[in-house]
Amino acid sequence: MEQSPQLARLLQDADPRLLEGKAIVITGGGGGIGRVVAIFAAACGARVVVNDVRADAAAAVAREIDPSGARAIANHDQVQQFAGAKALIDACVASFGRVDGLLNSAGLAHNALPWEEPEDEIRALIDVNVMGTIFCARHAMPFMMKQGTGSIVNMSSGNAFGTPNSATYSASKAAVASATFSWAFDLMPYGVRANALCPYSTTHIKSYWQGVGQQLGYTGVRESTAKEIAGASAVTKPAPENHAPLIAYLFSDRARHITSQFIQLHGKRMTLIPRHVDQETAGPFVEAEPWTLGLVTKAFSQDFADKLQPVVDYMMRYPTPSWPQAPRAANA
Question: Measuring CA to CA, how many Å separate 330 from each of 221, 297, 325?
């Protein structure tokens, strides 16, 4: 496959010692960010398992890395199945003797109005995005814990905070972020790390939503039923190659101290998204003891009246819907 100018520049930055000796599993590796991470990780010395339900796409990337199969193998097990995720991780151990990194990049996305979304579309998103992530990590963790080292990178999204026409997708990405933080705590004594990434790049993930969904057995999956407004998927988004150095770094020993982070890479800006709050002091607060219906009413109609969080799309792509002003109550 002919390299893009972005990929050619990326490979010039590769350090063949960065991931030397490591074995890395990449789900959704047949295209997009997964593909460029697989290629870059291999250029940085890793041996990689390229997983994608699209078997031809996975095989093409593995051949692009190493036609001999010595440093890259293709796999098309279905990660949303417990047994499929186990077979994927076992394939890495059988081929390379260990598993040092896992990029949970496999995912589905589409737009739908929440009151119109059929069961198969809901299940496809949750099964692949959430269960696929959990199942792959579940089977990789024991190997990493035994080794005393390992790094899991999960693809979450800024949509985890909610975005219009994407409630199920947003919920799936919030679940991924939450699982990541829990894993980081549980795995810390074993030297294993877990981080979540909010990527922002050009992607074709919605173009194969229906085909892949039906291929996975969700026959009720239709084309996306709610269209994004103009500009939401603009070609001005950064190329997928923009994310490969960050992910390779998170797999490396240079990042042995980096865990439980929620990282957004939005073009040239990298942000650590805060999530922990002190429940005693965070945000505006009112105290009362005991709480009564009147005091609750007063809190929201007076104390919090001009402090309520706005209804807004996290990515600021959609108009804010109109909402009636809360009545200001008399002193309760």
Answer: 51, 10, 15
**Of 199, 227, 224, 225, whose CA–CA distance to 212 is shortest?**
224
64-71 LR contacts (CB < 8 Å, sep 24+): 64/1, 64/39, 65/38, 65/39, 66/42, 71/42, 71/46, 71/47
Looking up tokens 């790094």, which residue turns up? 151
CATH classification of the domain holding 168: 3.40.50.720
End-to-end CA distance of the chain: 71
Number of domains in the chain: 2
**Which position has the higher pLDDT, 169 or 227?**
169
d(C-alpha 249, C-alpha 325), whole Å: 48
Instruction: Report the C-alpha gap between 307 and 96 in whole angstroms.
Output: 55
Higher-confidence residue of 9 and 60: namely 60
Residues 114-155: pLDDT tens digits?
999 999 999 999 999 999 999 999 999 999 999 999 999 999
Domain boundary among 226, 257, 272: 272
Residues 203, 122 share a domain: yes
Q: 175 and 198: one domain?
A: yes
Q: What residues make up the domain containing 323?
A: 279-332
Do residues 289 and 216 both lie within one domain? no
10 Å CB burial of residue 87 (0-12, 13-18, 19+) is middle
Q: Which amino acid is at 58?
A: A
Query: Is this structure's pTM higher than 0.85?
Result: yes
**Same domain assignment for residues 300 and 215:** no
Do 134 and 108 lie in one domain? The reply is yes
> Is 218 marked active-site?
no
44 closest CA partner among 262, 202, 246, 260 = 246
The answer on 324 and 240 residing in a single domain is: no
Q: Do 168 and 304 sit in the same domain of this protein?
A: no
Q: What is the pLDDT of residues 209-235, one digit of tens each?
A: 888 899 899 998 888 776 554 344 445
pLDDT of residue 25 exceeding 80: yes
Residues 33 and 112 in one domain: yes
What strands, in cross-sheet order, belong to the sheet with 269-272?
A: 72-75, 47-51, 23-27, 101-104, 150-155, 192-198, 262-266, 269-272
